[in-house]
Write a structure and sequence with these properties.
About 65% of the residues lie in helices and about 5% in strands. The mean pLDDT is about 90.
């Protein structure tokens, strides 16, 4: 192996080590960030490791999320003996380092390879506020983003040979991604789009067969997961609500995320729809032009294809089904592909310029990129300054760790009568801090669940005052329908008992 090939990967390895250390710094005070999703993943992982069962902390089958990320955490727990929450910071740091290294590997294979461009992009990834947020929480996006990078590498290798064996590896990675996050079907879409546009595949001899082969294997694990969910609960992906945000609003939200990622002022928000539209339409035009010119088989085009499919899927699906408002977390799998798709052409363009003007233009491009990275560094430092004192926001920060009500709950676990159900507006917090199982107060939208809740003659209600979820039945509404007696309280929370009325 030539020394230059070692260097191609050495800089990526150094960047990966820096990324690992960055996550260590952010999680050093209170450990990995914990959200309700995190508790769902970690509790299921523990049950997988201990009992080989897909049961969550509230003793119900896991359906709202696919199975692979809890399985991944459970496997680490089995090998190391470390609880996923305690090991979460090291898991995230390792995954972030792996993402950085694989991204560097990908860029070293670009048509117009530029080492300076590679370093600048790796720096932007390390400093990305959006990615640093993702990789300081116990979230499935941490693993999913790495799977996207592995898919891109595997598909590029398939393009070199166009054999079924190489396509099988692409399909296996895609299948696993689909049971890491349901949105993994966007990888199926990206692979299918690249196969469709590939002019090296004869239509009837190979193309149709390869598309069917890839599609069947890629979707197989997801179909099995959905069948398992339906068998266990009657619901393939848990209870879902129809969207309340129209297409135009979702396009606006995507635009605001792009503005934030670009370190632009929020004064650009009025142009968010225009920005999102230009970015998506420009990428579509570039990919179609490359296909028309017969230059589809490159790393850059795989990246563009995924960016297009992921962005369009989120835009359309958010207009059909209700989930959290489009934000940086939801779009995070698209950050690295979008960053590359919007900048890879700069080294190409500079290589076409034969005069000394290209050095001036290169200098301007470097200065602009470094100014962008300095701006993101300032945002990162401000966040680190806060989290170094209080912890990563969520159930691992000081608001929860030093909560008087949490201490009260831990000290009074014996006040509940056996057999009487316990409800809470944060049942995952009850489990995390006390180990007790409880049920979540029903969502207002699901009237049958609300009626079922009010049908209970006796129950306990653990209410956290520092939380507010407008989608859940409120405490005043419960008090109007049921007679509640306060049996315990501390700052930021109360415990109520319904005596049968």
């Amino acid at each position: 192996m030539k020394p230059s090939r070692y260097l191609n990967n050495l800089d990526s390895f150094i960047a990966a080590c820096i990324g690992f250390y960055a996550i260590y710094l952010y999680t050093a005070y209170s450990g990995v960030g914990i959200s309700p999703d995190s508790i769902m993943y970690a509790s299921t992982a523990t049950n997988i490791q201990s009992h080989l069962s897909l049961i969550t902390f509230n003793k119900t089958p896991l359906t709202f999320f696919p199975v692979f990320y809890p399985f991944f955490l459970g496997a680490i727990q089995f090998i190391t003996g470390a609880d996923p929450i305690r090991a979460g910071a090291m898991i995230d740091a390792t995954l972030f380092a792996a993402v950085i290294f694989t991204t560097g590997w990908i860029m070293s294979k670009f048509v117009a390879h530029s080492r300076i461009y590679k370093w600048l992009i790796l720096g932007a990834i390390i400093l990305s506020p959006g990615l640093l947020e993702i990789y300081t929480y116990l979230w499935s996006e941490t693993l999913f983003i790495l799977e996207i990078m592995l898919f891109i590498i595997a598909y590029w290798r398939y393009m070199q040979t166009h054999t079924l064996k190489s396509l099988l590896w692409v399909a296996i990675i895609t299948a696993i991604a689909c049971i890491t996050r349901y949105v993994g079907i966007t990888i199926i879409g990206a692979g299918g789009l690249m196969l469709l546009l590939d002019d090296h595949l004869p239509w009837w001899k190979k193309k149709v067969g390869h598309i069917l082969f890839y599609g069947f294997i890629s979707i197989s694990l997801l179909v099995a997961n959905l069948i398992l969910n339906s068998t266990a609960t009657g619901l393939s992906t848990g209870t879902r609500e129809p969207s309340i945000t129209p297409f135009k609003d979702n396009l606006y939200y995507i635009g605001t995320v792009i503005v934030d990622w670009g370190a632009l002022s929020n004064k650009a928000y009025p142009f968010a729809i225009l920005i999102a539209s230009i970015v998506l339409l420009a990428l579509i035009a570039v990919l179609l032009w490359k296909a028309f010119k017969g230059k589809i088989n490159s790393y850059e085009n795989i990246v563009i294809a995924f960016t297009i499919v992921y962005g369009m899927f989120i835009l359309v699906w958010a207009s059909i089904q209700r989930f959290e408002r489009i934000n940086s977390r939801l779009l995070s799998p698209m950050f690295i592909p979008l960053l590359i798709a919007c900048t890879y052409w700069v080294p190409d363009m500079l290589n076409l310029i034969k005069s000394k003007a290209k050095y001036v233009l290169a200098g301007v491009a470097i200065i602009l990129m470094m100014a962008f990275e300095y701006s993101t560094y300032q945002a990162d430092y401000e966040r680190y300054d806060d989290e170094g004192d209080y912890g990563v926001p969520g159930y691992s920060d000081d608001d929860w760790n030093k909560s008087e009500f949490v201490v009260y709950l831990k000290q009074h676990k014996n006040i509940y009568k056996p057999g009487v159900p316990i409800f809470s507006d944060a049942n995952e917090a009850v489990y995390l801090f006390t180990g007790m199982s409880s049920e979540l107060i029903p969502h207002k939208f699901f009237s049958k669940d609300v009626q079922k809740f009010y049908a209970h003659k006796q129950f306990y209600l653990i209410w956290f005052d520092n939380l507010y979820n407008s989608e859940l039945v409120s405490l005043p509404d419960i008090m109007k329908n049921k007679k509640l007696v306060k049996i315990g309280a501390a700052k930021q929370g109360e415990i109520y008992y319904c005596d049968g009325k």
